[in-house]
Design goal:
Blueprint: H1 2-16, H2 18-29, H3 31-48, H4 50-53, H5 85-121, H6 123-137, H7 141-152, H8 156-182, H9 186-193, H10 198-234, H11 246-253, H12 262-289
């Protein structure tokens, strides 16, 4: 095991450099990264293996087995339509992670591009972009997501777009600030001095060094996005039945809080632990990647 880890560290050092190896070691020593990373990896693995580990069809039910309490046959019990709650919770992990990760990727891709242009160009372009972003940031996150969901209608794709849009202005602000800070570095001035064009400087020197805060914020916003997606589904504006999703499952359980508490307890616990994992991972990455925080 020790030899294997040594070989991995040598490969990372040879392929990515000493700084990457030092960052990896700091991450391995950080408790939040270890705990949060383990939780995130666990739920990602569950989502990937959902077709294998789910015991029943998550959509088809048997009314003769409706509202059964947890048992050996149905370890998380059944819902009001006789569907296996365990299978629906497992498939719900896939749905929630797909929504949050794709929404965040859209926000990062668009926000990084717009923020980088704004921070690098400055002038009137920067003023126009940032005033528009200020208007978007004036809306509370959930209100902006609700507005998008109402306009576009419920559905998986529309929820992903809503998640991407309401996270977009935050990534623009962070990307702009990072680019402004990095573009004043000596190596950027040296690149300009040797005649490299603006596009090359932006993509080769500035953006790679502006990514750490984006990565940290992206991890934290994934947690918030999972909650937002669940909230939209709970309100009937998100993923529609019969697709299993934790928010809609909790909504379905509202009529049976007393007779079938397992219908909301298990999706609620999975939702809580997933959000906790991403938050811990984000805090740990901030401790490791933020140069202003010293061990």
């Amino acid at each position: 095991m020790i030899k294997t880890m040594g070989s991995i560290e040598k490969f990372i050092e040879r392929r990515f450099g000493t700084s990457a190896l030092m960052t990896l070691r700091k991450m391995s020593r950080n408790r939040n990264v270890r705990v949060g990373g383990t939780l995130v990896a666990f739920f990602v693995l569950i989502a990937i293996l959902a077709p294998i580990i789910s015991l029943y069809d998550p959509i088809e039910g048997d009314l003769s087995e409706a509202l059964q309490l947890p048992s050996l046959k149905h370890i998380f019990g059944t819902d009001s339509l006789g569907r296996d709650v365990f299978s629906r919770v497992i498939w719900g992990a896939r749905t929630s992670l797909i929504i949050a990760s794709l929404g965040i990727l859209i926000a990062i891709a668009t926000g990084l591009f717009v923020g980088a242009v704004s921070g690098y160009v400055n002038g009137i372009v920067d003023e126009i972009i940032m005033r528009f972003i200020d208007v978007m940031l004036a809306f509370p996150d959930i209100l902006l997501a609700l507005l998008v969901a109402i306009i576009t209608g419920p559905g998986l794709i529309n929820v992903i777009l809503a998640i991407g849009l309401y996270n977009f202005p935050q990534f623009v602000r962070i990307a702009r600030g990072s680019v402004i800070a990095v573009k004043e570095m000596d190596y950027v001035e040296a690149a300009k001095a040797i005649g490299e064009n603006d596009i090359s400087i932006l993509f080769r020197y500035i953006l790679p060094n502006a990514l750490p805060p984006i990565v940290v914020h992206g991890t934290l916003r994934t947690a918030a996005s999972i909650l937002t997606a669940a909230g939209l589904s709970f309100l009937g504006l998100g993923v529609q039945p019969p697709i299993p999703e934790w928010g809609s499952m909790i909504n379905d359980a509202m009529q049976y809080l007393d007779v079938a508490p397992h219908m909301w307890i298990f999706p609620g616990v999975f939702l809580m632990l997933t959000v906790l994992g991403f938050n811990l991972l984000g805090d740990g990455l901030n401790d490791v990647l933020n140069p202003r925080i010293k061990e």
